[in-house]
Design a protein that fits this description.
The structure is a homodimer.
Chain A (H helix, E strand, L loop, with lengths): L2 H12 L4 H6 L15 E2 L12 H19 L9 H15 L8 E4 L1 H13 L5 E6 L3 H9 L3 E8 L2 E2 L1 H13 L7 E3 L13 H14 L3 E4 L15 H4 L6 E6 L1 H5 L5 E4 L2 H10 L7 H12 L2 H27 L5 E2 L7 E5 L6 H10 L2 E2 L1 E2 L12 E5 L5 H21 L5
Parallel strand pairs in A: 1-12, 3-4, 3-6, 6-7, 7-8
Antiparallel strand pairs in A: 2-9, 4-5, 8-9, 10-11, 11-14, 13-14
Helix pairs in contact in A: 3-12, 4-12, 5-6, 5-11, 13-15, 14-15
Chain lengths: 414, 414
């Protein structure tokens, strides 16, 4: 087809696109996932490639397909195949302290799909949702795609600031409006790495009950704790009050490429999420193999292995930052998860740092991607999950040099 | 939680649900996929369990994971991992006569997700779409979930009736309205089994160009042809005019449980579908394994095997119908695919037949599920894909007895 015909067809077709599509915008096409190997990748939350349990998954695939192949390769409509539901139920009770029945569970294509479905369940264009500030970039995008008005509430070291949350809820109430839900990542928050204290969790559940505010608890990093004792989930603290939706994933503890996550919630919510889930069921193939991986005990072993591996990387990155960053740069010290959140001094922008770092072979996460309100210019997210220790030390060294150079060259603006 | 608290929480939460969720309704939760083994299952379009290539997939999984495990188990955002895109491009050119570049392709979680994304791309609530009458029940549900007004156009033996289609388009134009797209299954149509003639395909493309009407060509059964030569796809006939979206799937030729399908379309459409696809990419795990299955030549061999197997089943079902159905019952004779469409005589309803058949161990597809307008009471869909020949003969025998009994007992109403 000639370019002119192509352009005419495209403009004719795009006149017909829905409001929903206009909000969502375009997505990547033809992106080669191997791009991350071309630099030291502090930008994305990619699991360590060498940690992926390839041989154990080959074994699990063989066992699961030999035993249950007829069902692993067949359609399975609805909320999830029984084998993965059973394993997940056990895992949630053992590790998360969450008791969930079949009626409380939806297996999804990663936590991404779980979040997308929950946002669709509640949000009409123009509806209010509340988020942390900053918050997970996938949720920022999904909020935009649903046309949400996002009220962003600051975080301190113990979590979302309750006075600010309460203030926002009271303001909305005075305006005769109601927030549809609060979205948060209370454990090893993405992007800041902070963890909500037990007291803050309790306060949050109380505020949620007082205002009838549903909470979406995204707990993607729960299992990857390197220091201190685990804390109860909001889902557990809310004690089946029906207001908390708990979202999790196998992406960080098994394999992101299998696209398996879950939602735990009130049965009425699960039934409606299942109604919105229009993909004829989450992969029985991946579900059966992951279920075998969990049933054999390999998952639990593997989580132990990952904790050791990522703890060392976090320690390596923190030590490298301590050793090399110029004065004025600050960062968080997470107890788990994948991320450190850095604040730049003197009007230095994440765009400037990112551009110059890329030229020197290091990618970072732009702070601005983690806010719906356009702020975050002085923030950078660093993931220590993908690269090994040698690369982490080299990458932080490069980043420190980049920041030092930019600070020296730029007039002081702050 | 007490039942009273649960009920209060559910009613409080459901007040907050979006318009979109209200349209979509609830979905199944806790459904055991093994229910289909409890009866002779003519109801669903389930692939034959014994045909699923379990051992070949174990081999493909081993090879793909050993070679590319780091990428099969990692995130891959965007339109599809390069390995499956390459294999699909070859398959489409070899079998379907479709030349597609990376920019024309989106890999989806089955054709279901592809259709759902296309419907979302075009439809605002209240928008008009055009369908065949009857049409695929998954599309009926997706149309409802998007709040579409469906204009249903009758089929004859050669496809959608062009005069009726043209009449509907002219009526819409006179009202100042425009249909967003036409959805159809031109080859071994679901549910009727009919195939559009070459002439009808050409006429359709001409009407589409005349009215600027996009066409969604759902070709899930393309490879499963048992008689006569293959016909060109609408996508090929439209010769890159940008108006045809071609949807396909590995569900019928490899494994429904792997949830792999695709959309071929204009690059502008693909970019926007990718924007709506909020699941962080279709499974790299399944994609790498399916790509290996295709690259090794096993897919092509397997399709040949399936054609022989399903041809025999179709012949068995047709012969059994010929031998046992009472006068007045009529049915289609498909050249391929999974389905036969039966018309009941004398006011007999599909509900009555289905209820009585179930009591006797046979499930059928209710005709009413394949219309958006509430008709189809005298229609039944029979799938010959799931059961073996002995079961097919027994099932048709039971069904014939059920129909004969109902005809004898019921007063003639038509």
């Amino acid at each position: 087809m000639s370019e002119a015909v192509q352009t005419r067809a495209e403009s004719m077709i795009s006149e017909l696109f829905s409001e929903r599509s206009r909000l969502a915008g375009t997505g990547p096409v033809g992106l080669d996932p191997k791009w991350v190997t071309q630099m030291i990748a502090f930008g994305g939350g990619f699991p360590d490639p060498s940690s992926l349990p390839i041989l154990d998954l080959i074994d699990a695939a063989k066992i699961a397909l030999q035993r249950d192949g007829e069902w692993a390769l067949q359609y399975a409509f609805g909320s999830g195949v029984p084998e993965i539901v059973e394993q997940l139920t056990r895992k949630l009770e053992r590790d998360q302290g969450i008791r969930a029945g079949v009626e409380n569970l939806l297996i999804t294509s990663g936590a991404s799909q779980g979040l997308a479905l929950i946002f669709e369940l509640f949000l009409n264009p123009g509806d209010v949702m509340i988020s942390e500030s900053p918050f997970f970039l996938g949720a920022v995008e999904t909020a935009k795609a649903n046309g949400a008005e996002v009220v962003e509430i600051p975080l301190d070291d113990d979590g979302i600031v309750i006075a600010d949350l309460r203030g926002a809820l009271e303001r909305l109430r005075a305006e005769g409006r109601r927030a549809k839900f609060l979205y948060l990542v209370p454990t090893f928050q993405n992007p800041t790495g902070i963890t909500y204290s037990l007291e803050r969790r309790r306060e949050l559940v109380a505020v949620s009950e007082e205002f009838g505010l549903p909470i979406v608890e995204d707990d993607a990093y729960f299992d990857l704790r390197y220091d201190n004792d685990k804390l109860p989930t909001l889902y557990e603290l809310a004690n089946d009050n029906g207001l908390v939706m708990y979202v999790g994933t196998f992406s960080k503890i098994l394999a992101a490429g299998m696209r398996l996550g879950w939602v735990v919630a009130n049965p009425e919510i699960i039934r409606h999420l299942s109604g919105l889930k229009n993909d004829s069921g989450t992969s029985p193939f991946s579900s059966h193999i992951a279920a075998e991986f969990a049933a054999s005990g390999t998952l639990l072993e593997h989580i132990g292995h990952l904790k050791g591996l990522y703890r060392t990387r976090r320690d390596t990155m923190l030590a490298a930052l301590d050793a090399s960053m110029p004065d004025g740069v600050t960062w968080t010290r997470p107890d788990g998860g994948f991320f450190i959140w850095m604040t730049l001094p003197n009007g230095l922008t994440c765009d400037a740092v990112s551009t110059k770092a890329r030229e020197n072979g290091v990618s970072v996460g732009l702070g601005t991607m983690f806010f719906a309100n356009g702020t975050g210019d002085d923030k950078v997210r660093l993931a220590y999950s993908f690269n090994n220790e040698v690369e982490i030390e080299r990458g932080v060294g490069i980043l420190a040099t980049v920041i030092r150079d930019l600070l020296r060259d730029a007039p002081e603006t702050a």
